[in-house]
Amino acid sequence: MAGLIGIDASRAIRPIQTGTERYSAELIRALLARPGDRRFRLYFDRSPRDRLYFDGRAECRVISVPRVWTHLGLGLEVARRRPDTLFVPSHVLPIFCPVPSVATIHDVGYLWHREAYSPLAWLLLHLGTRRNCRADRVIADSQATARDLMRHFGVASEKIRVAHLGGPPLALDVDAASARATYRLPERYFLFVGTLQPRKNLPRLLRAFAEVAESDATVALALAGPAGRGAPSLQRLISALNLDGRVHLLGYVPVGDLPGLFAGAIGFVFPSLYEGFGMPALEAMAWGTPVIAATTGSLPEVVGDAGLLVDPYDTSGLKQAMERLLEDSGLRERSIVAGRARVASFTWDRCAEKVEAVLDEVLA
Questions:
Q1: pTM
Q2: Strand partners, 251
Q3: 176-343 sits in which CATH class?
Q4: Do residues 267 and 191 lie in contact, with contact meaning Cβ atoms separated by under 8 Å?
Q5: What is the pLDDT of residues 302-321, one digit of tens each?
Q6: Phi, psi angle pair for 307, to nearest 5°
Q7: Residue 253, SS3?
Q8: What is the number of alpha carbons within 13 Å of residue 147 lying toward its C-beta?
């Protein structure tokens, strides 16, 4: 269906990209590449460097407002020059939005993990989530998130549409040795990727790894991701468990370094207590890494039977899963093959197709 679709693209051009920023960037790219006569107006808070955004179907608007950009900048711009609908993929709807709207809500894990946020950050996140629930249509990353929105926010099921995220392209020839050298990792290591915050369940992962490390002096654990609230306590726990030198805190890892980092790992361990989707699990499967994931949130929905699913509260279960990957090369190979087959069904074009259908509903 034809129409002018406004998109808040401000998060797509953030220099440091975690899951929601990458979602915004990948989805916008996929929408611009789709066939059809839709037109797009992309709203930025700074000039984008990626020439993709200057595609013939996309009109770019840079809104220079130093504070409260969403409400004072984007909201006023939409009111003055109205698109047919506004789509917010990774942030919050303006307080005043005079056109039909669609918003993606990635997860509501903050409800159970207040300790991961300052009181102000928690309040702003909660208010933003409630605001997005008032959109004409709400896109959820997973069925798990959709259920949470209905249960905890009272969003009507007919307003919610699920659009799974896309995974990266399969990579069969990745330079794992270069990644190991860059990050000074040994030949054998387990990998975690994500913000270092309480809901990622890293203390249990460290305790499980400490038991594995007792019987295998060659294996290490790499934690890749920016430090979140509570991260300093992880370093203290690492020292208390005598894991200094065995656990590598890599900090934020640029997207371009991730394939090699994943491909070199014995396994990707993702024991998160809650995930709205869990993009790193898709990345692991695409880049040839066996997956150990939690049985909570959306992870079973994403990983399916292609990985080892473990109760994230069971430290012994995490330890046993890691030991199985260390000891059973056949299991590792089967997991890699199953993961690549699984991730092939998660594409950004398919995600964009579903999002287009939602936008068409609102435009109709």
A1: 0.86
A2: 224
A3: alpha beta
A4: yes
A5: 999 999 999 999 999 999 99
A6: -140, 180
A7: coil
A8: 9
